[in-house]
Each structure stands twice: as structure tokens, then as C-alpha cells.
Write a structure and sequence with these properties.
alpha/beta, seven-stranded mixed sheet, 10 helices, 7 strands, 47% helix
């Protein structure tokens, strides 16, 4: 019920502002969501500890991971019984947790092989002369993703010469490559753009909710995830 109320408020905000919610207001709601999400994860952790043989707990964890990795998921998984862990779903969940933990805070962001605007295959590269780099995952029909562009452009214009960089990675499929290019041109995005065609690399890292971003230090280490422009 609490989450339903949150999403109703969230939907009404996007309608009120025609999918262009002011960053400060959006930041408040993003912070509220993180708190609610953490509380809900704790409830699942407690439930799984009490009911280690519960298929409900197993599938709830599968669903949560589909929306993005959180370190507490490993703790929840550890509470499951051996029998559940040995099921096909349990084994697949273990593999997904292991791969998605690669992009946990404290780890170096992986070198992904992607496509640039010239249709060339290339690895993303971090500019070590910049103190911070934001890796931003999005796609061309994601209104929350696009609504952040103006604020990200302001930050980039203000700090890119000194200590800040952005690398955008779209997960558009082959049918929407032109849409991807058109959005970049429409909003005149000045930073490097990459295409993860059909979200292949993102899916391997359990990145399935958008926008998802990672703030890196100059050495490529992840220091924060899912940070909104106001926090940034």
C-alpha cells in the first residue's frame, strides 16, 4: 500500500509537469523511494530468515534483482535453504547475483565493449584527468531518463573543464537506433554516447531499471549508484 501511494504520487507528478519534473522535487521523491525500498528489503530479509524454504521469498528476490542489484540481496539469498538454492531458479539466481555484484560500490566499473555514434565497436574509457565520471544508462523512450538531461547538461557545462565527465550508455534495441540518435541530437548532449545494443551488457549486470547510473572516481572505482542530479 505504501509503494502504491508512492507510485500514484510519482505518476501524478509526471502528469502535472508534462514529464519534466523539476530536479529538486524529483530528488525528494527519489530519496523517499530509496528509504521505502530499503525497508521493504529488510522485511524480505526477516521473512526469508524465518521461512528459508519459501518459494515466495525466492521469487520475490528474483523480481527484486530484475529491478537492479542491491548488496542486501546477497544476505537475503544466504538465508534460503540448501534445497531452494539447488533448484534451477536458485542456481540461476546465484549466477545473476554474482555477475551483478560486479557493479557494487567499491568495485571498479567493468570495461564494456559497446558501439559508438560511428557504429564502431569500442571499449568505454574513463578520463583519469577528471575527478568524477558519471556512467548513465538510459534509452530513447525513457521519460525519467530524458527529464534529467537539462540538469546533467548544466552540471557538465559547469564542471567538465575541471573535474567532471559523463558517459551515456543507451540500451535501445535495433529498431530504435534512429530514435537514440535523434534524442541525442534534439537535446544536444555534449558528452560521449555509447550504445549497448538490446541491453546485452546491461542485462549481464542486472541493470534493468532506467535511469541507472554509477558515479566513479578518477580510477574507475564506483563510489555511488543511482544518484540524482540534485545529489550529484
Amino acid at each position: 500500500k505504501v509503494f502504491s501511494n508512492y507510485f500514484r504520487k510519482n505518476d501524478s507528478l509526471y502528469k502535472k509537469y508534462n514529464n519534466n519534473v523539476p530536479p529538486k522535487i524529483l530528488s525528494i521523491y527519489n530519496s523517499e523511494y530509496k528509504i521505502l525500498e530499503h525497508k521493504r528489503n529488510l522485511v524480505l530479509w526477516k521473512y526469508t530468515k524465518k521461512h528459508p524454504n519459501s518459494f515466495v521469498a525466492l521469487w520475490e528476490l528474483v523480481g527484486k534483482l530484475n529491478s537492479g542489484y542491491r548488496p542486501i540481496f546477497d544476505s537475503i539469498y544466504s538465508q534460503l535453504s540448501i534445497n531452494l538454492k539447488r533448484t534451477v531458479t536458485g542456481k540461476r539466481l546465484y549466477d545473476q547475483l554474482k555477475s551483478s555484484a560486479i557493479v557494487n560500490v567499491g568495485n571498479n566499473f567493468p570495461l564494456l565493449l559497446l558501439q559508438n555514434l560511428k557504429n564502431e565497436k569500442t571499449e568505454i574509457s574513463i578520463n583519469k584527468n577528471k575527478k568524477y565520471t558519471l556512467i548513465d544508462f538510459w534509452f530513447s523512450h525513457c521519460f525519467p531518463c530524458i527529464s534529467q538531461f537539462d540538469e546533467l547538461k548544466n552540471l557538465f557545462e559547469k564542471y567538465s573543464q575541471k573535474e567532471f565527465d559523463i558517459l551515456s550508455i543507451s540500451v535501445d534495441d535495433s529498431a530504435h537506433i534512429n530514435d537514440w540518435r535523434n534524442v541525442i541530437a534534439k537535446y544536444n548532449l555534449p558528452w560521449k554516447q555509447y550504445l549497448d545494443l538490446n541491453g546485452k551488457e546491461a542485462n549481464q549486470l542486472s541493470i534493468r531499471a532506467f535511469p541507472t547510473n554509477f558515479l566513479l572516481d578518477r580510477n574507475g572505482k564506483i563510489i555511488e549508484t543511482d544518484i540524482d542530479p540534485v545529489e550529484l
